[in-house]
């Protein structure tokens, strides 16, 4: 990963350079001011030496960091570091698409973790790039190209009957424009399914943009989604299209949709009904063509009952509901995912090859995985880093301690049966209780559906 660092404080700049010496897989180029960096970037654009990530200070002479980022026009994934944090600067940085905002005094490991997360995101997306803090699909490969076929195969490391059931529904709905509602616990891979559906759709060569409703402050979310006109608010010095406009012709992934403020839900419902949107500060309606994929691990039925989520919006978004099962229901995948992560981690850190002992494999298969695939990946990475030998033992996995910590809250993190019951209840309601129609919609054997219906008292 090639990184551009822009920092006017020579001592701080040099300290970053020295710290990065311990991470040889990062290629660093530092600049003492934004103008110098901008000139170098303009020279390097469209060459193999171009940068993957830009890290910049804010308060600098001649051109400050925010002006610098504005000049880059969202073409680079960016991280801001500053010694004088302010809410106003943080808001401006978010509007410029900054991925992270770190206040000086942060640990260097925190910066490395941010970079590693960005790297993983890019690896998962394959032929996708991140721009302006949003995920965009590149439109450079034909639908039948070898590169595209290879990318499709990389979505899932392993398989299981439970995963195949969900994948089959996703493949059925992908070529249509029907809205999809992904349900499942945190960490099961709902974001991977959203990408999977988009990549197998007719919109695959158009933008795919993901937004996490829980990650953006409420007062900024409306402008991020719908865009704004010049003068719509104090800092709106020029007009800016929102995510829904940027995704025209493609797909939008609304992650953690259950956290969307109730006031914005009515506006999103109008977009779904009218296929138009109105920017902040404008009365002009702009036509849009967007396919919506939503996801939640929240109890939507409870939120509807409490009045914090609109029932009419829910039914619009969940034309096709897909339940992504938890990892404990997909045990056939555990060892393949673990081995893949083990090999990936040893290569990333330059370690000698390591393997899992038979006892470790048994421990992995018997652990309940409260955090699902995300927790499994974390456990394996930690074990690879901390283990002293080439053979990873159960002690290296640290699962017993995790069981004590998470076991008492497993119900809150998991609640698979609660989510599945809600999922089946909605499907049956949508089909007026018709078991055959519900079975066809879910891709579930009708006898299994009958058993679950009795089990959950539906």
Please, could you describe this protein's structure?
The chain has helices at 10-20, 34-44, 65-72, 87-95, 108-125, 146-153, 161-173, 190-199, 218-226, 243-246, 262-274, 300-306, 311-317, 331-349, 358-366, 372-386, 394-397, 399-407, 410-413, 416-430, 435-442, 446-455, and strands spanning 2-6, 27-31, 53-56, 77-82, 100-103, 128-131, 134-137, 180-183, 208-212, 251-255, 276-278, 285-287, 291-296, 320-323, 355-356, 391-392. It folds into 4 domains: 2-108, Rossmann fold, CATH 3.40.50; 136-323, Rossmann fold (3-Layer(aba) Sandwich), CATH 3.40.50; 327-413, Helicase, Ruva Protein, domain 3 (Orthogonal Bundle); 416-455. The chain has 22 helices and 16 strands. The protein has a 5-stranded parallel sheet, with helices on both faces. Helix 11 (262-274) crosses helix 13 and helix 14 packs across helix 16 (372-386). The chain has 458 residues and is an alpha/beta fold.
Detail the topology: elements first, then pairings.
Blueprint lengths: L1 E5 L3 H11 L6 E5 L2 H11 L8 E4 L8 H8 L4 E6 L4 H9 L4 E4 L4 H18 L2 E4 L2 E4 L8 H8 L7 H13 L6 E4 L6 H10 L8 E5 L5 H9 L16 H4 L4 E5 L6 H13 L1 E3 L6 E3 L3 E6 L3 H7 L4 H7 L2 E4 L7 H19 L5 E2 L1 H9 L5 H15 L4 E2 L1 H4 L1 H9 L2 H4 L2 H15 L4 H8 L3 H10 L3
Parallel strand pairs: 1-2, 1-3, 3-4, 4-5, 8-13, 8-14, 9-10, 10-13, 15-16
Antiparallel strand pairs: 6-7, 11-12
Helix pairs in contact: 11-13, 14-16
């Amino acid at each position: 990963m090639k990184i551009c660092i822009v920092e006017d404080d020579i001592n701080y700049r040099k300290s970053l350079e020295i710290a990065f010496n311990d991470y040889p897989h990062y290629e660093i180029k530092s600049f003492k001011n934004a103008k110098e960096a901008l000139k170098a970037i303009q020279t390097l654009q469209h060459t193999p030496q171009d940068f993957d990530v830009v890290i910049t200070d804010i308060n600098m002479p001649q051109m400050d960091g925010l002006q610098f980022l504005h000049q880059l026009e969202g073409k680079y994934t960016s991280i801001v570091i500053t010694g004088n944090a302010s809410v106003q600067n943080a808001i401006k940085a978010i509007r410029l698409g900054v991925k992270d905002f770190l206040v000086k005094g942060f640990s260097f490991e925190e910066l490395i973790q941010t970079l590693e997360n960005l790297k993983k995101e890019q690896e998962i997306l394959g032929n996708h790039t991140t721009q302006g803090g949003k995920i965009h699909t590149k439109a450079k490969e034909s639908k039948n190209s070898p590169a595209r076929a290879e990318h499709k195969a990389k979505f899932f490391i392993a398989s299981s009957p439970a995963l195949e059931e969900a994948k089959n529904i996703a493949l059925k709905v992908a070529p249509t424009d029907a809205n999809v509602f992904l349900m499942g616990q945190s960490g099961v891979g709902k974001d991977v399914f959203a990408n999977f559906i988009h990549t197998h759709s007719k919109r695959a060569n158009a933008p795919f943009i993901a937004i996490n409703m829980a990650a953006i402050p409420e007062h900024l979310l409306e402008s991020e989604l719908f865009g704004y006109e010049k003068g719509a608010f104090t800092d709106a010095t020029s007009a800016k299209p929102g995510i829904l406009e940027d995704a025209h012709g493609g797909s939008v992934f609304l992650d953690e949709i259950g956290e969307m403020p109730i006031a914005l839900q009515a506006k999103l419902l109008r977009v779904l009904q009218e296929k138009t949107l109105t920017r902040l500060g404008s009365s002009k309606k702009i036509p849009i063509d967007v396919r919506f994929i939503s996801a939640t691990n929240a109890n939507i039925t409870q939120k509807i009952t409490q009045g914090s989520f609109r029932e009419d919006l829910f039914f619009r978004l969940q034309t096709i509901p897909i339940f992504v099962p938890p990892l404990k229901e997909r045990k056939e995948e555990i060892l393949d995912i673990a081995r893949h992560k083990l090999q990936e981690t040893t290569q990333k850190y330059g370690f000698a090859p390591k393997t899992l002992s038979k006892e470790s494999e048994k421990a992995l298969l018997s652990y309940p995985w409260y955090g699902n695939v995300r927790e499994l990946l974390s456990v394996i990475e930690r074990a690879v880093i901390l283990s002293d030998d080439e053979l990873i033992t159960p002690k290296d996995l640290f699962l017993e301690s995790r069981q004590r910590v998470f076991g008492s809250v497993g119900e809150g993190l998991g609640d698979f049966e609660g989510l599945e019951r809600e999922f089946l209840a909605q499907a049956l309601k949508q089909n007026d209780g018709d078991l055959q129609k519900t079975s066809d919609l879910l891709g579930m054997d009708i006898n299994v559906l009958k058993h679950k219906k009795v089990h959950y008292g539906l």
